[in-house]
Specification:
The complex is a heterodimer.
Chain A (H helix, E strand, L loop, with lengths): L23 H15 L5 E5 L7 H4 L3 E4 L5 H11 L4 E7 H7 L1 H10 L4 E6 L2 E2 L5 E2 L18 H4 L5 H5 L5 E8 L3 H19 L4 E7 L3 H4 L3 H12 L6 E5 L5
Parallel strand pairs in A: 1-2, 1-3, 3-4, 4-8, 7-8
Antiparallel strand pairs in A: 5-6, 7-9
Helix pairs in contact in A: 1-8, 4-5
Chain B lengths: L3 E5 H11 L4 E4 L7 H12 L3 E4 L3 H12 L5 E5 L1 H6 L1 H10 L3 E7 L15 H5 L10 E3 L4 H18 L2 E7 H5 L1 E5 L27 E2 L6 H21 L3 E4 L6 E4 L2 H16 L4 E6 L1 E3 L3 H7 L5 E6 L5 H9 L5 E5 L8 H9 L5
Parallel strand pairs in B: 2-3, 2-4, 4-5, 5-7, 6-7, 11-12, 11-14, 14-15
Antiparallel strand pairs in B: 1-8, 6-13, 10-12
Helix pairs in contact in B: 1-2, 1-7, 3-5, 10-13, 11-12
Classes of the chains: A alpha/beta, B alpha/beta.
The structure holds thiamine diphosphate (TPP) and iron/sulfur cluster (SF4).
């Protein structure tokens, strides 16, 4: 019989804490599939963030840490520098990575740390109730931009991959999305390349995943997916922004 | 023990940490302790160990935290403003129960303050500093030799209790050049990755999860009780102090670090005049040597606490004396170092009262 559905062995048996329609779960699944496929699970340390995925260690069964809010790349640096044989990943939201932790992220990238970051961009602070984040779109209403994000007040959305791609340290930088099967397959391919970058010690790798937060967007899961396609992807285009030789 | 070397305190600290088995240093420049990271930056690569200049103290302590979670001996050194930035990390490290060593070469504050020696971070170091109910072991050497000796103890204690150990010094101890003899090198080849370390599960039956988090209050209370039990053991077993000329003393000075050293001269001056003062010098500021102070309260007429701050350790001394005898105080602020004569003059104001 042909197996058509299987839970990756890197996934634990716990039910997730994510809201219905939240793409954190999809992101976990593709990370776990890749850990299985690459055989890296038992070598891996994941540094989880402060955010909705603070419980990530419940769901992906590797050695795990929770960094202080925004400090995942610094913590991962500490691990990787003293233990280069470990496979070290951070998993971070846009508040965690692009706001409070932007310095740690940029400098880990600049140093070319051999770590891999999966960056969940859902355009708001999910865990704390949907406040504005650095990737909130212009005009987007959040609990702290009740009149919509205004450039004169809050500036403009931060394009992390585009910014990091200008640097020499990163080995692989890409942006994927989780709004349809084709994009999910592409995102998985991107993360696989990011893993390769670390395994070959080519430098820092980051994959942004354009994600949903139906709860705080106050939308159904289907509406959220439609919004990603309609409003978010035109501002955050998908693709590879930097890939040094040897990443495949 | 080997030969005697003439070294500055700030470099002796680094050399001692290296000999004690520090495998990784992460830090950010700040005066008055730049010679320490600079020394590490030369020596660590020679030994195939890690030196990394971080982008900030915030990053530095979280790098230490990451390295500590692998069970690797890691250290950072900084000075007051940098240490303030590290407080969140200290709090996480405390509740994750991982070992590391932090040196604070205290300078004048608050704010940007100055770069002169001070002791105004006593509260911050001994009472927690970051959020939550936690402590670090805090040790305060008063000579370059003692700095070198205590670095070994710092790493041992950190590993023994899986706790952060703060070595609290100041710029004066850093700049002082003295002969120093180092303890034997710790054989780092014998270091093993501890069972609890997060380095990837490998052959372990269980995966390791090192976090400072439990969303349920019942669980978090249990985590807190683990810490409190550990602190109780530390208070019972790790108190260290020096009593100097206390046997026949009519009065006791209490002081730590640089000021304790100056106070020893004060005591000589006083004894030349026939005034019998002794010194109780806490070496561990946490755990605080409250018993010896309490016991001495029955022998001396009064205590005289002196510090380079506005009376921080003073509070612990008063708690230990518990009203049995008067406790007087003299402090200098903002980076002023008191002289031995000045301390004696201030002390004498309380004689015959
Ligand atoms: C120092 C600090 N500041 C603020 C917080 C509160 N906080 C918790 S999660 C979070 C934002 C998380 O948002 P994001 O990183 O976008 O992840 P998401 O929850 O959307 O997945 C904030 C601000 C904190 N825990 N620590
Ligand atoms: S709040 Fe948003 S990001 Fe968090 S679990 Fe719910 S949908 Fe996902």
């Amino acid at each position: 019989m042909k197996t058509i559905y299987k839970v990756p062995s890197a996934i634990t048996s716990r039910d997730t804490t994510y809201c219905p329609g939240c793409t954190h779960g999809v992101a976990h699944r593709i990370v776990a599939e890749l850990l299985d496929e690459t055989g890296l699970t038992k070598k891996t340390v994941i540094v989880w963030p402060v955010g909705c995925s603070v419980f990530g260690y419940y769901f992906i069964g590797t050695d795990a840490l929770i960094a202080a809010h925004g400090r995942a790349c610094a913590m991962a640096t500490g691990i990787k520098r003293v233990h280069p044989e470990s496979f070290v990943m951070t998993y971070q939201g846009d508040g965690d990575l692009a706001s409070i932790g932007i310095a740690e992220t940029v400098h880990a990238a600049a140093r070319g740390e051999n770590i891999t970051t999966v960056f969940i961009n859902n355009g708001n602070y999910g865990m704390t109730g949907g406040q504005m984040s650095p990737t909130t779109l212009i005009g987007q209403v959040t609990t702290t931009s009740p009149y919509g994000r205004k450039p004169e007040l809050n500036g403009f959305p931060l394009h992390v991959p585009e910014m990091l791609a200008t640097m020499d340290g990163p080995a692989y930088i890409a942006r994927g999305a989780l709004d349809n099967p084709q994009h999910i397959n592409q995102a998985k391919k991107f993360i696989q390349k990011a893993f390769t970058a670390q395994q070959k010690r080519l430098g820092y790798s980051l994959v942004e995943l354009v994600s949903t937060c139906p709860t705080n967007w106050k939308m159904t899961p289907v509406e959220s997916i439609e919004r990603v396609k309609r409003e978010v992807l035109p501002i955050f285009p998908l693709g590879e922004f930097r890939a040094v030789k040897g990443v495949e | 023990m080997g030969e005697k070397l003439l070294m500055k305190g700030s470099e002796a600290i680094a050399e001692a940490a290296i000999r004690a088995g520090a495998m990784a240093f992460f830090g950010y420049p700040i005066t008055p302790q730049n010679e320490t990271p600079e020394y590490f930056s030369r020596r660590m690569p020679e030994l195939g160990r890690v030196f990394l200049q971080a982008e900030s103290e915030v990053a530095a302590i979280n790098m230490v935290y990451g390295a500590a979670c692998t069970g690797t001996r890691a250290i950072t050194t900084s000075s007051s403003p940098g240490i303030s930035l590290m407080q969140e990390g200290f709090s996480y490290i405390a509740n994750t129960n991982v070992p590391c060593v932090v040196v604070n070469a205290m300078r004048g504050g608050p704010g940007l303050g100055d770069i002169a020696p001070a002791q105004a971070d006593y509260f911050q170091a001994t009472k927690g500093g970051g959020h939550g109910d936690y402590h670090s072991i805090v040790i305060a050497p008063h000579t370059v030799q003692e700095e070198a000796d205590l670095m070994f103890d710092a790493f041992e204690l950190a590993d023994k209790y899986r706790i952060m150990v703060v070595v609290l010094v100041d710029g004066l101890l850093g700049q002082m050049m003295e002969p120093v003899e180092f303890k034997d090198w710790v054989d780092v080849k014998k270091f093993k990755t501890p069972e609890w370390a997060t380095v990837g599960q490998g052959d372990r039956a269980q995966r390791n999860i090192l976090i400072s988090f439990d969303i349920l209050a019942e669980g978090l209370e249990k985590m807190n009780l683990v810490l409190q039990n550990k602190y109780a053991k530390i208070r019972e077993n790790e108190v260290r102090f020096e009593e100097y000329k206390m046997d026949d003393a009519d009065y006791a000075i209490t002081a730590f670090g640089t000021v304790a050293r100056i106070a020893k001269t004060t005591i000589e001056l006083a004894r030349n005049e026939g005034i019998k003062i002794g010194l109780i010098r806490p070496i561990t500021l946490y755990p605080f040597p409250e018993k010896v102070i309490e016991n001495r309260a029955s022998n001396v007429k009064f205590f005289f606490d002196t510090e380079m701050n506005e009376g921080q350790m003073l509070e612990d001394v008063k708690l230990a004396v518990n009203g049995k005898k008067p406790v007087y105080f003299h402090g200098r602020l903002g980076g002023i170092v008191p002289t031995a004569e000045e301390i004696l003059d201030e002390f004498k104001k309380h004689l015959g009262g």
